[in-house]
Each structure stands twice: as structure tokens, then as C-alpha cells.
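Case study: LexA repressor LexA.
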Amino acid sequence: MEQNDFGKMLRRLREEAGYKSQTRFAAACGVDNSTIARLERGETKPTPETLKKLAPCLGVPYEELLAAAGYLGRAGERRFSSCRRIPVLGRIRAGVPIMAVENFERELDIPADWRADFALQVESDSMIGVGIHEGDYAVCRQASAPKPGDIVVAVHDIAAGFSEATLKYYSNDPEKGPVLRAANPEYEDIILKNDYRIVGVMVALLKNSPPPYQRYTEYLSTRDYTLKEWDQVIQIASQCGVRPEQVLEIIKMQWQMAQRLFERQEKYRSE
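Here is what the predicted structure looks like once written out:
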């Protein structure tokens, strides 16, 4: 994308995000107003550091801005002005540290300012609901103590001295305890036991190629099938005169109560 085209895109995204003035937008992002003005006029190319500040305010992924500015192409291409390489995990040896050379399959180029240690190439459709497709690269940092809601890499020990890695959401279920949860209703929760260990948290996503339209239709089909289970609930709520926002508040309140109960139980167990 040419600098002038990037400037037009930036202005459109800024206005769509609700920032009518460059000054207010610059203040929200922590960037000089003159920088925003030059970017929108196409007079300068944004640095990766500037793009990282703009992305949250614009409501778009950092990688999307990197690609639009010409830093990021297809996964593995060296288009960054400043880059470094991280290993891509392959077949994982059981009992060997995750960052051991024996576990590395190849290397991947990423922006130098990304805080990441390794990458995992996605091999299933378990996270399709959040736009993570087979062939994509999940860029991760080493971590063993994730927060609920993090997308994690968990290693499952299998036979023959090897382990397999899976990419899932980490969640604290009030009934099941810590679980790995897919973003696809066709996959059941995985209860975290001794044969699973968390080795990383996803910090970015690199697309290997644009997802085909078939992926979208498959997701819609799965989603529509799952939503049928809610038809009766929606019908009864409507008959009782309960509005959607009221149902949402009730669910939030019940979920918060369940979380507090779970935390108290965990505290008692540890004492």
C-alpha cells in the first residue's frame, strides 16, 4: 500500500472509531499531533512502534496495520524494517524443555519489538470462531501461569516419548475448574490435568494465506446449529417480556457469583 493510500485508510479508521479531530485521536494514542497529520497526508511512513500505539484506538489488530504499512506480508517474508527470528515448534519431545533445539522445526521472521519466544503453526479448526485458521502462525511468549481469557499453548504428553501442542482459550470453569476451551462448539472442553502443561501465551497472529470462503460457510453452519439450542430460551424470555439486556445482566451477575464461589473454594483448598 502506498503512503498516500495508508493515510486515507488511517483517516477513515480514525473517523469510524469516533475521533473526529486529529488532536483528540493523537492524545488518546499517545502520539504527537504532527505525526498523525503527516501520516494522513501521506508524507511519512509510520514506524512499527507508532502502529502499535494506534491499533488499540482504531480497534484493529496490530498485524493488520503492519501489513497495510508494508511491514508484513505472507507469514515468513522479511518485510520488517527491523526484525528478528523465532523458532517454530515442531514435534515436541516429552521431558525436554519447550525451548530446547530438538523441538524446533524452522524459523519465522517477526517485528523486532514483538515480545515473543516461539511460534506454533495451527493445524485444526478449533479456534475458527475467532479467526484463527489452519496454517496460521500463533506467535507466543513463554508462560506457565496464564490469566482466564488468554489464548494459550498447552502441551499434552502422549506415548512414544513425544508430546503434542494445542492452541486453546484458558478458562476457569465454576464446575470443571481450569479448562482449555476451543472457539468452535464442535470441540469439548479439555480439563487441565497432570498430562497437560501450559507453556506459552499467544501475543500475535500471522496469516499464512487469506482464509477461503468455505471456512466462513462452515463456521456459519456450525454456529447456526449451535444457536438452535437457544431457541426455546429466547422464546420463553420473549413471552415473559424479558429484554436481551436484562438477560445479559442476569448472566453476568450469576457468572460473577460463580467465579467468587470458585475462588473461595480454591482458597480453602490451599489453606
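For the exam, be able to explain this: The CA atoms of residues 161 and 220 lie 39 Å apart.
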